[in-house]
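ok so I'm stuck.
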Amino acid sequence: MGLPAGAILVATVLLSACPAMAQDRSGSRDDEATFRDTSYDLSGPVSPSSATSTVSPSSVPQAMERLDDDGLRADLSLGLLYAQGKFGTDTKSTIWNTAIGGRLRAGDLTVSASLPWMRIQSRSTIFTGIDATPVLVAPDTSATRRTAEGFGDLTLGASYTFASSDSPVEIELSGRAKINTATQGSGLSSGENDYAVGVDWSVPVGRVTPFVSFTYRFLGDTPTYTLRNGSAVSGGASYAISDETFILASYHYARSATTLIDDAHELFAGASTRIVRSLRLTGFATAGLSRGAADLSAGLAVSMGFFNRDRR
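replied:
not stuck anymore, here's the structure
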């Protein structure tokens, strides 16, 4: 299946203008910073799942990046994701999702934003969700397979990390809002704003960093559908192969947006490596374990960081 022309255009323009987001681990190794230097801050949220039925091409690179100094940091990312599945129906839905994301951190406070370009082919009703993730609302609402494409809804987020040099545990509190910016006729948006709050725990143990994430979503009702608020839970671990490369694996659960769709259960795997000093490449994939999740999805993200401290 070829990449849609619109996605190619968006990716080309964005890569030319701002070659997207990266990680730069600090080279500082003083005793008081030992715990934080050996951990990977899987931020906003710790789980790359964004608490919906598929992962997000904007949240994954942020989850795979470490911002570990106290100065001002900024990064940009560009990601592409393809997902497909029947979602409990008799026909297949396919989703192309290209998203640009930005993040700014000052000390322990982080703010972020992401905007997707999406192409959805399905007989079912699927909207843009928080962090550009698709939210399946109702199966087989059309007699034929329809195509909806264009820019989806903007997501804004903020988080605060609590970490101590005396303890390896990091706790992050986060909040995100999906703002209705998609055009009314695009078929990509519910036309309402959605919100989410979350808490993430991570504990580095040598090269391994286990993590757990809990998120609760508040979904805006549409004139046609009453959407359910609900929780999502994720758990997994990252492993540092080297200072430049690490891998991550996790499990995700999310309550479905309506009673018409089953809850989502899925497995996630990703790998990230530095290409050059401030440029990082991340690849990822998921496998659905339930009818409410995509059968499979895969994506690639490139990221670039700014205002990075010099590494040793």
